[in-house]
Amino acid sequence: MIDVNISQNSVPKHLGIIMDGNGRWAQKHGKSRIEGHNQGVETVKKIVVAAKHMGIKYLSLYAFSEENWKRPEFEVKGLMELLKTFLEADLHMFHDNKVKLEMIGNKEKIPFFARKVLEHSIQKTKNYDEMTLILALSYGGRDELKRAFEHMAKDLLDQRMSISDINEKCISKYLDTKDYPDPDLIIRSSGEFRSSNFLPWQSVYSEYYVTDVLWPDFSENDLRAALTHYQNRERRFGKTSEQLQARTTS
Ligand code: FPP
Known about the structure:
Layout (H helix, E strand, L loop, with lengths): L13 E5 L3 H7 L4 H21 L4 E8 L7 H17 L1 H7 L1 E6 L7 H14 L5 E9 L1 H17 L10 H6 L11 E4 L18 E4 L9 H12 L9 H9 L1
Parallel strand pairs: 1-2, 1-5, 2-4, 3-4, 5-6
Helix pairs in contact: 1-2, 2-3, 3-5
């Protein structure tokens, strides 16, 4: 079932979301930060289904950054437990909607109790093709580049490639996102104009949409507003408006 309120002509193929504001939402409601993250998971569930109905093929959610390991231990543990509970209790959502789960980031750093469930969920959903949900977990764009450079240096030393092979396409193949198109649109909730180390290589031509809405309050209508905004943008990729017009009329 496709959302009829969204024109299917220029739906972003890949949407990234920087989910921000769980802590502020919790404070506003006199609740603990973990309760804020809990409410954030409720939004995740709604938005995954809505995004699929709007025709998005790849949805990347910034769920835990490399820098988030520096948060207080109880919050880090709470977030990892939340990841596990979400995947255990809501795996049916992936099955019901034929959504494939994948992840980007430094998987080895995720505690075993959560990693085990994550790997199981990835395995169980690997044949679905309606939408891919990419969780960015223990993810940092600079860390991703560092790991890519290490891998590439090893391939150079072992003579699996040569320096003349290095170009933008080749670099992209060393990134965690090698199987996905670059994000067309990145939404950030809670009003901060920052990219916070989210997909720096991949987002050079992404459109950004920042809303003041805190992530736990982010609704299907907010997603629709972001997509409508995107559909009214002219993406020039370094060219002029005239060049683009000429291409569409020829
Ligand atoms: C930012 O809010 C959000 C995060 C650090 C993590 C996002 C996590 C979730 C939505 C829940 C976990 C998701 C899954 C898929 C299990 P913040 O705490 O930085 O908010 P603040 O800036 O208002 O303090």
